[in-house]
Structures are given as C-alpha cells and as structure tokens.
Amino acid sequence: MDATARKLEPPSPSARLQPHNVELERQLLGAILMNNETFYRVSDFLEPVHFFVEAHRRIFEKTSILIRAGKVASPITLKTFFSADEQIADLSVTQYLLRLAADATTIINAEDHGRMIFDLGIRRALIRVGEDMVNLAFDSPVDAPPRQQIEDAERRLYELAETGRYEGGFQTFAEALTTAVDMAAAAYERDGHLSGIATGLADMDRLMGGLQKSDLVILAGRPAMGKTSLATNIAYNVARAYRAAAAGGDFKTADGGIVGFFSLEMSAEQLATRIIAEQSGVSSSLIRRGAIDAEQFERIAAAAQEMQELPLYIDQTGGITIGQLAARARRLKRQRGLDFLVIDYLQLLSGSGKRASDSRVQEITEITTGLKALAKELEVPIMALSQLSRQVENREDKRPQLSDLRESGSIEQDADVVMFVFREEYYLKSRMPKEGSEEFFKWQAEMERVTGMAEVIVGKQRHGPTGTVLLQFDAEVTRFGNYERAGRLPERME
User: Fold this and answer.
1) Which range is least confidently modeled, 40-54, 110-124, 253-267, 400-414?
2) 480: which strand partners?
3) 99 half-sphere exposure, CB direction, 13 A CA radius
4) How many whole angstroms from its chain centre is CA 472?
5) How far is residue 291 from each of residues 57, 267, 288, 294, measured CA to CA in Å?
6) CATH annotation of 3-163
7) CATH 1.10.510.10 fits 196-493, yes or no
8) Handedness of CA 331, 337, 338, 344 (dihedral sign)
9) With 192 labelled, which of 8, 10, 314, 435 sits at a CA distance of 20 to 30 A?
10) pLDDT value at residue 5
11) DSSP H stretches of helix in 190-291
C-alpha cells in the first residue's frame, strides 16, 4: 500500500482495521471521472455511504449530483464543490482528482469494482450493528427490558440483508413471456390445474385460480361472520397439501405450501385448539371444558397426530408494527421457507413510530402499502383479515360491499383481491318472530334455506372475475367446506 493510501485510512480505535480497499475506490472514482457512462453501471446499488474514505464519499456524492443533472463530471467541474485551500492526502483537491483520473480502471471492470466496494461497506455496517448491540447491552440499566434492543438489532440486520440484493431492474419481454409460460405449465401439472396455491375450497379456487404469488388478499367481514375460521381452514388446507420436489440440488414447493400465521388476537394455543376442533369435528368449547368422551378424545388425538408435521408456523405476538412483521416474515422465509402468509387481523397492526401522530387512516394506508410491498418482495400471497365499518348493520341487506372498506384508507386500492364473508343465518336468527304466526313459518322456511350456508363475496379481483361462492359452514366446529346441498344455488358471476 502506498503512502497516499495510508494517509487516507481513518484511524481505528481498535487494533483490527475494518474491511476496506482504498485502491479499489480510487480506481472506480477515476473511471467515472474519465467516462461518466461508468456511473450508470453502479448507480443502482452503490451509494456514498459504501465508500470507506470520507473524501471518496464526498467525491462520489458530488459526481452523482452532476451526472444525474445531465452535466459532465470531471476533475475540473468537480473541484468547484470543494474549498480552494482544501487538501486530500496532502494534495490539493485538483491534484487529487487528476490523480484519480490517472489511476482509473477500465469501464469493463467498473461493475465488479463497485460490487466489491458495496460488499465491504455492508461488512463495515454489520460491524457497527454488532458494536452498537454490545455497547447498548453493557450500558443499559439493569431493569431495562432487552426486548426492544433485540427488535432493533433484528430490524437493522434485516435492513442490511435486504440492502445487499443486486437483482431487479429491467428485463426483456422474452424473459417475462418465459415466466408466464412456465407458470401456465406449472398450473397444468398441478393438482386442480390452478395457477396459484389451492385453498382446498373447490368453488373458490375455480373463481380465483388459487392464491396467486405476490397478491395481497383482503378477507373482510363483520364480527361473528367467521373470518378467522375461514383463514385457519385455508391455512390448514395449504399446509396439509404441502409437497416439495427436488430442483437443482434444492427443494422447491410443488403443491400446497409452507404457511406463516400472525395471530395478533388469539394465542397460539387458542388457534391450535380451533384447528383441532375443525379437523376432529369436536367442538372447541367441549375441548376446553374437557367434556369429551373416549371416542371424541381418539378423534382429537388422531387429528393432533396428523398435524404434528404440518409446515404451519404461528406468531402470537400482539401489538407489533408492520416493520417488525416484515422482518419476521423474511426470517421465516430464509430459515424454514414460506409460500403463504396470513395476518389476523390488519387493524391490530401498527405503523412505524414516525406515523404515531398521524391519523389512523394514514396509518392503515402505511400498513396496507407495506403488506403489498412485502407480498411482492417475498413472492407469496398474503391474506390479511380486516374488520368492516358498522354501516353494514344499518342496511336492510347486510351483505358487505367495497364501500364498507373506504373508511380504512387504501385497503381497497392496495389489495389485489377483496373478499367478504357473509352468513345470513347469523342475522336471520336474531329476527325470529312470534312462534306460530304466519311470519314465523316464513322465517322458519328462510332459516332452513340458509342454515349451514355461508357466502364468500369476491368484490374485487385484479386478475379475474368477481362473484359469490357458496360454502358449507359448520358453526359447532367453525369449519368451512365445499357446498354440496341438493338444489344448490348457482354462483353469481359478474
């Protein structure tokens, strides 16, 4: 290393120098000054902060400003951003910039040099996270809970992990066509011939083509309609159908999927009890009270045994932010894999701290925008449950519609699919007329028609038709299934 490079190295408080390559930085900056087109080979991932030397950060920043403004960045134009008496490594700014140009690498090597500088910058940032974590752990008061520090360190680490991705940018239409044809071929080979993940509910799958990658699916309804039950039914069906196939030395999901379930309202134990009830056919209230016989216990044990190996992961932490949820979802995908994510429910999430003073509508907007971005990033469908406004109760026809979501900001705008769960039986039961009257017999006939029936109304679908799907609903064990009653009503399609 020459004398100039040594002078450029900032002093380190420890004996171990942080990873860096000053010569590499000089060569890349020189190449950009000699040929401004070089900048566009690194501009989509390299930033001033990734340079080790402070002077190099400033040079890259000013160079970026000039080139993006459509001006020429050269030693002569760049020196105007520095004071006349300023020196870099005992050289005047002009002399140093001219020396950078003389040390320039070729444009062919520019991207590789930029990526090496980027990687070294990420490694230094990783060291800073570790040092901050250690210092904070030493200096925090004894009674300070460590949870916040753990969450903060985790957030910073995953921000670094996501920053380190080079992929993205434009692709040719031919590449997009290949992806589309591959998706069609996979749908043809998959059970049910669906392009997305099967929900296990045949009519819903026919209408939607399954749960599509990168889609944000909103499942909304008033309380007691069965939102959570439908979501757990679908999550269980997806996890139970999971099948992996070898692909290039690794395993890739061939059917079903690995499921992550954020249960923000119920505990993991409550959710597990509900799923056991759904699959064993024994009411969860009987399970909790222990009021079961030997035959029911055998069914529960058999259902539990079957579920032992399911790739279904539950996070029961309440009150988390959209940022924390995203970090945990990324971690699950890296460690275990992830094909489908469920959030029960959206209104129990909170936005970032900077939004704390904003209105709840703005906070929900931040959350839905974040969920849609997460679905695209992880390339998995995300199903987020949502409460509806009370205005539904004021209408004669209680069926929900998209306007019932508008009080919640951008839910309708950001969602690819909006579905509503509606059970007429719930409302009709509360309007029972006097027994023996003519109205009672009409009510009784109507109750017989709707008992055990639920509607899933697809109010919005970006990639397909809207319409209504009929499902069977067993209120005793909160289980949804395919509707197979005689005289079945046809699906309403628009």
Assistant:
1) 400-414
2) 473
3) 15
4) 31
5) 70, 22, 8, 10
6) 1.10.860.10
7) no
8) negative
9) 314
10) 45
11) 202-208, 227-240, 268-280, 284-289
